Fold each of these.
Amino acid sequence: MPEPLGEFQRRMLEFIVNYIRREGMPPTNREIGKAMKIASTGHVDYHLSMLEKRGYIVREAKKSRGIKLTRHPWGIPVEGTIAAGEPIEIFSEPDQTIEVGHGVDPESSFALVVRGQSMIEDHICDGDYVVIKRQRTCENGDIVVAVHLVEGIPGKATLKRFFLEKEQVRLQPANAELEPIYIPRDEWDREWEIQGKVIAIVRHYGGPGRAA
Amino acid sequence: MPEPLGEFQRRMLEFIVNYIRREGMPPTNREIGKAMKIASTGHVDYHLSMLEKRGYIVREAKKSRGIKLTRHPWGIPVEGTIAAGEPIEIFSEPDQTIEVGHGVDPESSFALVVRGQSMIEDHICDGDYVVIKRQRTCENGDIVVAVHLVEGIPGKATLKRFFLEKEQVRLQPANAELEPIYIPRDEWDREWEIQGKVIAIVRHYGGPGRAA
DNA sequence: CATTGACTCGAATAGCCGTTCTACTCTTGA
DNA sequence: TCAAGAGTAGAACGGCTATTCGAGTCAATG
């Protein structure tokens, strides 16, 4: 749906989103202009109409601060489904978001829907949302999203506890029926990547298609 | 901190909260006046200054729509701690809130912090937040907050799965080491009350005092 | 009765807001 | 070179906004 945006308009949208998050209300055209170093209010109006035409915002004509975001400002994107068991491709979800807040920075976080039972002993179930903080490193015992790189590009991903051992990395499921994945250090460094670690989980009961 | 509010100002604050939730921006004084059937904008300003003096809102002088709520609009209150094991008094938490959204109606929902392991087989852990939808009835198998009434007033509460059986109600923990609570139908009707059922859980990792 | 305090209205004001218009400067491509 | 399009500035306009002021009502209190 949304067309890609130029650098300038992308920064302008970013300012609007941050302003709303900070102030609890949308900015006026003049406030936008001041922040973006635009001298003319008409000029701001021009860019806003661009953002509107491309589906990023909706405006209410003539109303002061009449800007609405088409995506929920507090949501973080649900980027797809991840296997807790065997690594699978992260299957992308259509533009879904989940609201979290509570200290979660939406810029550096995203969510995945868990498939499978392999983290069940850590009480992460099929259908749960895991909230991931993007980071390239982690500590022993963290639950992480680990991605296998195939010729440098991300391939299959899995959700596991991370343990750095003498000669290898151990990706440990939380299910007695499943074996850990052992990866030699050099292969780990060459072919694997940490995408982030789990900072929260959210489970909905009774909703459509959720775990009971 | 907040002084109690008269009926009129309470409804006015409620309108403002709902307007923000609906429109994504605070209302203008005139919009408030129209909704509250107040003819004069000065009159609206008067009541707004009352709300501000009593700590319910903060205003930014001269700014259009310059109203901020002092409590987070999307949060639902964390009302206390509930035992998943033996019934305990619901221990009240200080004005904490947790952000949920995602279709959860803040008017009819609240959250509790879980203590104990008795719902562990349903993968609800010590330290998890359970989001409760207020309702007096429930269906078999729902996870509910059940309260024992002592002379009509709420006493101890517990978190269990609810099953209505022939001659009794069974409150079933999800922990093989614990026994269900059986309550005869007439005692149930006289002395117990459903406060609501679990519609979601939220778990934070790595934060202060959370379950690892 | 007189007073006080809470609440209400109507009008006025100064400034803010979104929008529109004209004119100008670039860059791109035919 | 010429035309088209995107981006910029400045000014102007009509409407909207928050705030203030003066005056009035009503109930409770002394």
Amino acid sequence: MSPVDPENAELYSIADLAKEFGISTRAIRFYESKGLISPERLGATRVFRRRDRARLILILRGKRLGFSLRDISDYLALYDADRGQQVSLLAEKVEERLELLEQQLTDLQTTIAELHEIRKLARDRVVSS
Amino acid sequence: MSPVDPENAELYSIADLAKEFGISTRAIRFYESKGLISPERLGATRVFRRRDRARLILILRGKRLGFSLRDISDYLALYDADRGQQVSLLAEKVEERLELLEQQLTDLQTTIAELHEIRKLARDRVVSS
DNA sequence: TCACGCCTTTACGTTAGCGTCAAACAACTG
DNA sequence: CAGTTGTTTGACGCTAACGTAAAGGCGTGA
């Protein structure tokens, strides 16, 4: 049995999350060492709540987008800056990031269009052969 | 003077391209060592043509999208597979890559939407304060 | 001729993001 | 009580993608 009480659906062990997201426990500990998540402790054992799980989802999405953990950390900071930060600074950071993402969106759409074109060419070749 | 004759606008030195794209000559040599580009030689000196320059643009776009050089290499292979490859294999690879890119597109749109939301929240806070 | 600027190759250094033991502890199970 | 399973903290290893000298060749201009 998991060291975390399964009667409480809000709690996850490190192995639970690793399995759910198809990553290693080592990776999760590494993210914690970098300050991306900070699960509670039950003695020495990590205990993850919904918040940690949600952050993990954001982390993995960031990775799919090719961001470094450093970038993801910055993004998470924006994300949970509901209160506690200088709003002006926050807005600035958000704007910066949005510009990068929109550049990336353009790149992505161009690339997808090109692949569609390549696919089309390939099909034409099949037909005419 | 550049070792490449400037009268011929089709030719670029390694420094020309490095400067134009804001990368190091080391990076360009590294890409060649990985087979992503293969400029001609004039003696020992690299001579880049339009094709090499075009490839470099694709490489840099791939990097902005967070792809590894290995991935970019695969992508380039699709790109110049106008002829010379098994069409069926080509189509398969294209399809694979398109799926990844469309996942990435979804991630990206979600992230952008979230940042817009955060920006909105921040603005509301300013107004109500 | 000699310094300069740009080119080359070789090679070691560096950072990120984990993988992979190792050693030790805690709880359950037969 | 021994064994299995899951946890912890080190600590060393590894690949990618270059950075950074070091040492030398080639052509030009004073």
